What does this fold into?
Amino acid sequence: MKPLLLGALLLPLLLFFGCSLKQEIQKETPKTILIKTKKTAFHQSGFVRELGDRIEILLYSNAQALLNLKIYSDSVCINSSCIAKKEFYKKYMDVEYPKNTIDSIFLGREIFDGEELKFEDGEMIQKIYKKNIYDIEYKVSQKRVLFRDKINGVTIMTRDITE
It folds into this structure.
């Protein structure tokens, strides 16, 4: 009788606290997303979600989840397989960018601590060059983000899907 009573008391608590621990989405934006590197390419519709401890990029094809990219402060998870950010950059982009570069791109924020930051015609623009390492053009407007590294063949573009 005691285990049954204990279970009856604990079940509502577990349900209540289990549901309340889910992280609330702070912002979710539908986007067309292009991710192109020497090793992979995606150009799909999806969502960029901002949560308290991570950014999630969800890509869909024919209403099926194609990619679930979770970006944490120190790691990146691709469809539940997680690696350190430093390893992520080397493995998928063949280059070592500053740790928060991928976060900043998907959030449309300045990269490389604002290096070469300019504003022209309503766009934030950064052109960053380091001989034989990277040649980056980064542009952020109200509805579009474009990151292109010509040396390493990396292009990331997001464009808001408007109704």
